[in-house]
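## Example record

The block below lists the input lines for one assembly entry, exactly as stored, with component labels intact.
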Amino acid sequence: MRKLRVVIAKPGLDGHDRGAKVIARALRDAGMEVIYTGLRQTPEMIASAALQEDADVIGLSILSGAHNHIAPKLMELLKASGLSDVLVLIGGIIPDVDIPKLKEIGVKGVFLPGTPMQQIIDFINGNVRARA
Amino acid sequence: MKTVAETEKQRWERETLDPVLKKSPERAKSFTTISGRPIDRLYTAEDVQGIETHNPGEFPYTRGIHPTGYRGKLWTMRQFAGFGTPEETNQRYKTLLAAGGTGLSVAFDLPTLMGRDPDHELSLGEVGKCGVNITSLADMETLFDGISVGDITTSMTINSPAAMIFAMYLVVAEKQGADWRTLSGTIQNDILKEFIAQKEYIFPPRPSMRLITDIFAFCAKEVPKWNTISVSGYHIREAGATSLQELAFTLRDGLEYVQWGVDAGLDVDEFVPRISFFFNAHSDFFEEIAKYRAARKLWAEAMRDRFGAKSDRSWKLRFHSQTAGVSLTAQQPYNNVVRTALQALSAVLGGTNSLHTNSLDEALALPTAEAATLALRTQQIIAHESGVANVVDPLGGSYFVEKLTKDMEDGALAYFQQIDNMGGMVEAIERGFPQKEIAESSYRFQQAFERKEKIMVGVNDFVQENEPPFEILYIDESAAETQLAKLERLKQTRDADAVARALDRLRAAARTSANVMGPIVEAVRAYATVGEMCDALREVWGEYEETPII
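Predicted C-alpha cells for the full assembly:
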C-alpha cells in the first residue's frame, strides 16, 4: 500500500518551527511520507509543493495570527489546481472565534497547543480521502 | 555489618533508607528534571566535596555579581509589550509605567523583525499581530511620544534589523534632546540564536556578524552605556533545548561574539562590559537556579582566562530572564499564573538582573492589559512580600543546588570543547550542530509528554472537559490598514532623492569594511524604511536560507 504523503508547511514570516518539526517527525514515525517545506512559504509555494509531491495531506503550522489571510488564499489555490480533496490541517495558536471560519472554507482540522500527536495521526487516518 | 570504606550516606542508605524502600517503593524507578537529567534521591556534604565556594560580588560570581544581592536594588521589572500600531503600543507603555514598571521592552511584529515593509507580499496578515509595527522613524517617534527616553531604559527585541531600529531610537532620543552618551537600554542583536533557534535571520552568518561588530564599535564610541547585545538562551530553550543546552549554546554564542569583536580589533574591556544575557526561566525550579549560577561562573572564567579581560566589568555576567512561554497552556489558563510565579521565583533565586513574567493568556493570544498587569503584580509580590529578596543567594550552600551548579558547569564546558573543535559557533551552526541537538531534545520531550512521563497539568493529566469561555485580546486588521496608509503618505511627503542617496551610501559602505552604522543613522534621518534599508543590504550581502533539520 502506498504511504500517505504529507506536506508540512510553515507559511508567513514566523520562524518558530518547533511544532512543525515535532509533528513532521511524529507523522514520519507513524509511517507516513513527510515533506517539510521549511520556513517562509507563500500560499503559492505550498500549493505547488502539494501538487508536485502528490500530497494527501497538508499541515500548516501558524502561530503568528496570519491564518485568516493565509488559509483562504491557500484553499482557493488548491481548488484552482484541482486539489480540493487534499486534507488540510492547521496547528498552532488560533483564537476560538476563527475556527468556524476556517472550517467553513474547507480546513478539516484545527489543532491547538497541547494536542497529543496520536490524536492528529488518528485524525489523518480517519479523514484522508481514499486513493487508488 | 559495617565496612571500613562505608560513607555516612551509604550508612544512611543501609540503615534507614533500605528498610523503608522495601516496605513502600518510590513513585517512580528514576526521577529526572524536565530536561531529562537524572536526579538523585538525596544530596549530602559528600556530593559537594571539592566544590569551591565563593562570596557574592567576588570572582567568579557564582553567588551573584552584587555583594548586597537585591538588598541594594531590586531586579528591573521589565514587561515585554507591543502590538498593533505605534499609537496603540504607546498607550500600553504609558499604562505599564504608571503601574510601576521600571523599564520598557519593545515587542516588534514579524514584518519589522524580518526587515519587510507592510506592503511586502510576505507581510500579508502579519502587520501588528505579534508586536508593534515600526516601518520608519515616524513610527518610532509615535511609539515614544510623551515618554522621555532619557529617563527610562528601553529593551528592544530586534535582531537582523537591530542596527536600523536602534538608529531610529537614537534619532528619537536626539530629537527629544537626550544625550546619546547617557542613554541606556538594550538591543537584543543576537543573530546566532536566530540561526540556531528562532530563525528570524535575513543575511548570511558572516555579514550578520560583521553588522554586530560594527554596532559594538559604534556604541563604544558614541553610546557607551548602551547594552549592545543580549545573548539569548530564551529562544534556544523555547525551541526545545534542555536547560544545559540553553546554557552551553548561549554562553558559547557569547564567546563567539567576543572572539569576533577581538578579531575586528576591539579592546575586550571596552566592549565586553556592554554584553548582557537573556535566559529562560523554565519550570524545573532547581535546575534553572543552577543554570544561572553556573552561567555567571563560566562567563567570568572565560573572560579572564580565555580572553584576558582585566576589568571586573567584563567578568560579571548580567542577565535578563523571562518565564517560559512554552510551558503555558491554552487549557485551564489560570494555571499559568501559578507556573509563572514559580518560574519567576527561580529567576530571582538565581540572581536575575531583570525579569519579564508572562501573562496567563499567552498560549492563546497576546496579553490583555489586565493579564499583563497581573503578571507584573506577580513580580511585585515576590519582591515585596515573599522575603526572598532580603538575603543574598539564599540557596548557596544547598548540597543539591551546589552539585547541580557544578554539573551544569561541567556539561557546558564539554559542549564548549565540542564546538571549539568544529572551529567555533558560526561553523557549528553552518554544520547544523546546535540545531540538531535541539531538535533531538524537543522530540524526546514530546515523546515523554505523550507517554505521560512528563505531566502538564490540565493537558495530559487533570484534564477538565467543557472549560468556560475565556476572553482574549483579538487583534484585527486595522493595524495593517493604518500602517499601509501611513507608509503611502510617508513616501509622498519625504525627500525621495535624499532617501535614494542615503541608501546608496549604505550599499557602498556594506561593500567595504567601513562601519555601516553611520550610513544607517543617516538613512533613518531621511525616513528610509526598515524594508528599504534591509533591501539595500540584501543586495550586497544576499539572504540566508537554511537546510531544515527535523
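Chain B has a mean pLDDT of 95. Chain B touches chain A through 45 residues (CB under 8 Å).
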